[in-house]
């Protein structure tokens, strides 16, 4: 194998999502019994990038009232058992292997936690693994790593009854971890009013931060309450891309949003964001924790992670080889293999158009590679809406390893793969604010290049033609390298080649065949 093939294929000579390691993880089930919610997730497909085959959540409130009784909430316990019986029945029809059932702070700390576990086992056959606070922190950090390989900073996971911190040093290893009782359900039950609660939060945050003396550039937030706050921040700032994963906030903006939450009617916030009433009830308490945390940690930016404990459990099942793979590329390969007309063509298309982007940095070439792999996965959509579907899929799909700007870049490239302009596509021009103008133009060029390459040859365009870009001379050259290539260069292909050259402000030159044929 050459270096390019080694970068794309695993040790078994096939894409890793289709290798034996990944096939073992094609149906991983996780039941997560938290202090506020009980959730069942089944991951399926591209093992390195979480694809959600099934995802159901019940807000049971197991930890409500714990401070007074020391026991699980009776109503929450009944609701949780009902949900767990359903989830256990569902696993029997889904071919879930392995199935991981875990519980966090509420069951861990409750006096009747062991009794609850025994009842669950007797009634459902599910064996619950109790996670310690430090295990929670480790798994949440691994969930972040699933979406951001090489992530560096501090992660903070807030649940109903606890809050965890963990350190990521950029080497894929989780550093020190700490846990606390700063969950909203426990904060609600502190006596002494708002002043006492703020004092408790500030004291606990100061203790936690003392164990993490190096101030991180980035703070990763994991948990439903943090995501609810992020939704409020998006609406307050009229942010154009409503995707929570990788949404980034500046500390100043967070403080403004926390102030906004305090001054607003929670029912109006709930209705405006689509947040459940049960979740919104926790938001003001979580906001006070976030205020103290940001003030003490002093990060340069804060990023929302939609991946947490459940994704961390999936990461836990992976080999070191699989963990090192790029989640974006693996997801794109999986999409191509399952949905494209000619699986494998994307790799050849990338080799064909890559000379146009020879000076691009590795991060950009990664996006170009992903676009080529995804260029044909929406071919079944109606032609009138195909460009729009491509854009929506790229910008809103559950993909890891993408900033919001990169999502827009990828979406624009795929839109222009099917349409030369954005007229009539329903494109939201406000999204262009997430990308520099130069990158907007580059994404359009990439789309036109894929549009030309896919029309030129339906298989292996690199065997029939070679592109050369001479920016100083402003020339785009297509060298036809085979007799079949000369036959393939028809009128529509010629028009698309000229369109690509026009977008690049270049003179189109064809070698091996006159540009205008008589």
List the helices and strands and how they pair.
Layout: H1 3-8, H2 20-23, E1 27-33, E2 37-44, E3 52-59, H3 66-69, H4 74-91, E4 99-103, H5 105-109, H6 113-124, E5 129-130, H7 133-147, E6 152-158, E7 163-169, E8 174-180, H8 184-187, H9 193-210, E9 218-222, H10 224-237, E10 248-249, H11 251-263, H12 266-273, H13 277-280, H14 283-297, E11 301-305, H15 309-316, H16 320-323, H17 327-339, H18 345-353, H19 362-374, H20 386-396, H21 404-418, H22 437-456, E12 465-470, E13 475-480, H23 483-488, H24 491-503, E14 507-511
Parallel strand pairs: 1-4, 4-5, 6-9, 9-11, 13-14
Antiparallel strand pairs: 1-2, 2-3, 6-7, 7-8, 10-11, 12-13
Helix pairs in contact: 4-6, 7-15, 9-14, 10-11, 10-14, 11-14, 17-19, 18-19, 18-22, 19-21, 20-21, 21-22, 22-24
Quick overview of this protein structure:
By secondary structure, the protein is an alpha/beta fold.
Morphology call: elongated
* Biggest sheet features: 6 strands, mixed
Number of helices: 24
Q: Roughly what percent helix?
A: 40-55%
What is the average per-residue confidence, as pLDDT, rounded to a whole number?
Answer: 90
Largest sheet: spatial strand order:
8-7-6-9-11-10
Beta-strand portion reads 15-25%
- Terminus-to-terminus distance: 44 Å
Helical/strand content category: alpha/beta
Oligomer: single chain
């Amino acid at each position: 194998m050459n270096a390019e093939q080694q970068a794309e294929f695993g040790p078994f000579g096939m894409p890793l999502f289709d290798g034996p390691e990944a096939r073992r993880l094609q149906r991983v089930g996780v039941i997560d019994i938290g202090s506020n919610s009980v959730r069942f997730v089944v991951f399926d497909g591209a093992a390195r990038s979480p694809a959600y085959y099934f995802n159901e959540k019940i807000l049971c409130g197991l930890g409500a009232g714990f401070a007074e009784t020391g026991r699980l909430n009776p109503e929450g316990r009944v609701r949780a058992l009902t949900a767990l019986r359903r989830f256990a029945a569902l696993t029997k029809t889904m071919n879930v292997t392995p199935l991981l059932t875990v519980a966090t702070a509420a069951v861990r700390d409750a006096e009747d936690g062991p009794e609850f576990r025994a009842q669950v086992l007797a009634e459902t056959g599910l064996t619950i693994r109790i996670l310690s606070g430090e295990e929670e922190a480790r798994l949440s950090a691994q969930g972040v790593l699933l979406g951001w390989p090489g992530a560096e900073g501090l992660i903070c996971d807030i649940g109903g009854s606890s809050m965890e911190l963990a350190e990521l040093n950029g080497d894929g290893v989780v550093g020190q971890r700490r846990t606390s009782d700063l969950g909203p359900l426990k904060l609600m039950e502190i006596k002494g009013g708002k002043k006492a609660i703020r004092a408790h939060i500030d004291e606990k945050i100061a203790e936690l931060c003392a164990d993490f003396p190096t101030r991180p550039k980035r703070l990763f937030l994991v948990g439903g309450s943090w995501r609810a706050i992020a939704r409020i921040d998006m609406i307050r700032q009229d942010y154009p891309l409503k995707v929570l994963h990788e949404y980034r906030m500046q500390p100043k903006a967070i403080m403004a949003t926390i102030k906004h939450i305090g001054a607003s009617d929670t029912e109006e916030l709930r209705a405006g964001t689509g947040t459940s009433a049960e979740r919104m009830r926790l938001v003001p308490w979580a906001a006070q924790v976030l205020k103290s945390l940001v003030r003490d940690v002093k990060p340069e930016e804060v990023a929302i992670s939609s991946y947490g404990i459940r994704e961390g459990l999936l990461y836990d099942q992976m080999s070191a080889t699989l963990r090192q793979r790029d989640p974006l590329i693996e997801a794109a390969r999986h999409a191509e293999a399952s949905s494209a007309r000619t699986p494998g063509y994307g790799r050849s298309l990338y080799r064909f158009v890559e000379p146009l982007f020879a000076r691009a940095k590795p991060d950009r070439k990664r996006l170009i590679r992903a676009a080529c792999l995804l260029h044909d996965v929406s071919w079944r959509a109606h032609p009138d809406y195909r460009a729009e579907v491509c854009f929506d899929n790229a910008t809103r799909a559950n993909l890891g390893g993408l900033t919001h700007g990169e999502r827009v870049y990828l979406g624009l490239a795929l839109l222009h793969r099917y349409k030369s302009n954005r007229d009539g596509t329903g494109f939201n021009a406000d999204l262009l604010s997430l990308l520099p103008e130069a990158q907007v133009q580059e994404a359009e060029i990439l789309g036109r290049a894929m549009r030309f390459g896919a029309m030129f040859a339906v298989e292996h365009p690199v065997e029939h033609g070679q592109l050369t870009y001479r920016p100083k001379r402003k020339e785009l050259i297509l060298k036809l390298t085979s007799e079949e290539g000369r036959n393939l260069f028809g009128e529509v292909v010629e028009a698309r080649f000229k369109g690509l050259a026009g977008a690049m402000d270049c003179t189109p030159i064809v070698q091996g065949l006159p540009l205008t044929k008589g």
